[in-house]
Amino acid sequence: MATSLFGILNMSQRSIANNQAALNIVSNNISNMNNSTYSKQSVVLSSLPCYNSFRYCSSNGSLQIGSGAEITAITRNRAQWLDNYYRDQNTSFGYYNQIGGMTNNIENMLNNELSSTGLQQKLSDFFSASQSLTADPTNNAYRIAFVEAAQDVANMLNGMSSSLKNMREQAVGTIGDPDSFAQSQIKMHTDDLNKKLAQLAELNGKLAQSQAGGSCNNDLLDQRDALLDEISQAIPLTTTTNTNGTVNVYIGNQTVVKGGEVKLTLNAVQTDDEDNPVEIQLVDEDGKVKVDDITKDLSSGSLKAILDSGGVNGLTYKSVLNEIDKIAKAFAEEMNRIQTGTADGTIPYCIDENGQLVQATEPIFIAEGGGDFTAGNIKINPNLLQNPRLIATARGPADMDPNAVGNTSNLERFNALEKQKLPGLAIVEGVGNGQTLSEFITGLVADVGSDIQTINDSYTAQNTILQQAESQRGAYTGVDLNEELSDLIKFQRSYEASARVFNVASQLMEILTQLGQ
């Protein structure tokens, strides 16, 4: 560029344009200062190549004089290590946030159905009814109350089983029921994750096009990073960044997204294993299964939490249901043993319609559908509902006087059940004398409550860590109003000075023009 007024005009004009662009960036930063997904942008200025001045400007020969500045980049404040740290913490938070929904469901059930106002109260009501019948074994009203109280216990157990099964069904579906699986959390969560991975690939494609055009779109980069944040809450996220601004995403050692392509998708599959009802496959674009089950690669995240809630290890819907099933089985079997059992050489008797003792043969509880008793299948014997006289009130030898209707030996066994240690409720299965119904329920509530508290404490701690990570990243990427006001003044002054230079050069040009006339 020659040393001339034209050169001055060009430099000042370019400077005006540079500062105007810088002011636009400041304005954009301020507009987005409350946008949590926005990264502060900054203008990068670089000097244009120098030129040699005319020799008459210096006795030492030509001089290297600058020709102004140009904008070479618009950068955004972003640090990869901060993003990685935040996303690692977000994955852990996603796990505890999701598993917290399960613990809340279980806690509500315990408070409503297993507490002193729930199952324990129903058992207490039953033993009260048994005591009343013991006082007058010939009283039909007391027999009816006894049967109804036993039915209430069964109904409460049925309700608890139904609640836990419904909650588990919402999480992972019911084995053998594809419709419930299609509406389950795990299926919808997996489908949503696939959509986000597809969106990421689409953004990668736009970023590649933007980079090919000579610059990388910062708004697209912000959208990409916000999407990666969302994905990181569902699964542990491993990524690599390409030179064109696109990212690759890996699960385990498998490439899921590569640039603008989705290489593999996640596919939730229902199994026939009650302990592990769902597998997550990785499937290629042709539908071929590349990995049968990626569960081992899901160390944390909301997807892992849903899988865990549907399993049997630790605190889960199924593990709690298994404990409730133990109560139902132990209670029903012992009640039936007292009602009809003769193993000790004595016989249980009920009072027939003629007011005489006859051997009791009808069990109190039946397992609907057969098999072992569970909280879901325990039912009161309908024959007892129709004829409460079938309740065994007396016990004695085979030649017992049929008129001894005042005998309450069998009812006393029902009464003793309240404080009897049942082998089926042993702390360690098959070891020891077991626990009473009340001890087992109290222990179950305490153990589950302790597990819930541990999970809640972990959630609180992880939430704090995540907020700290977010704050740390936000301090780097976010918009600082004080900085923006400082830049605003700086670029405003530079703009004014450039305009002044342009104005002076224009006036000098006008003077030269007039002199030449």
Overall form: rod-shaped
Tell me the strand order in the biggest sheet: 5-6-7-8
Low-confidence segments: none
| Main beta-sheet annotation | 4 strands, antiparallel
Give the strand tally.
Answer: 16
Radius of gyration: 39 Å
N-end to C-end Cα span: 26 Å
Q: What structural category characterises the helix and strand content? A: alpha+beta
Please tally the helical runs, counting DSSP H or I stretches of 4 or more residues: 13
Q: How many domains would you count in the coordinates? A: 3
* pLDDT averaged over residues: 90
The helix fraction, in percent, is 40-55%
What fraction of the residues are assigned to beta strands by DSSP? 5-15%
Order of helices and strands: HEEEEHHHHHHEEEEEEEHHEEEEHEHHH
Provide tags for this entry.
55% helix; 4-stranded antiparallel beta sheet; 3 domains; single chain; 3-stranded antiparallel beta sheet; alpha+beta; 517 residues; rod-shaped
What's a quick, concise take on this entry?
By secondary structure, the chain is of the alpha+beta class. 55% of the residues lie in helices and 13% in strands. It has 3 domains: 5-77 and 478-515, no CATH class; 137-172 and 316-454, no CATH class; 178-270 and 277-309, no CATH class.
Overview of the structural elements:
There is one protein chain. The chain is of the alpha+beta class and 517 residues long. It folds into three domains: 5-77 and 478-515, no CATH class; 137-172 and 316-454, no CATH class; 178-270 and 277-309, no CATH class. The chain is 55% helix and 13% strand. It is built from 13 helices and 16 strands. A four-stranded antiparallel sheet has the order 5-6-7-8, with helices on one face. A hairpin with a 5-residue loop joins β5 and β6 (247-251). The radius of gyration is 39 Å and the shape is rod-shaped.
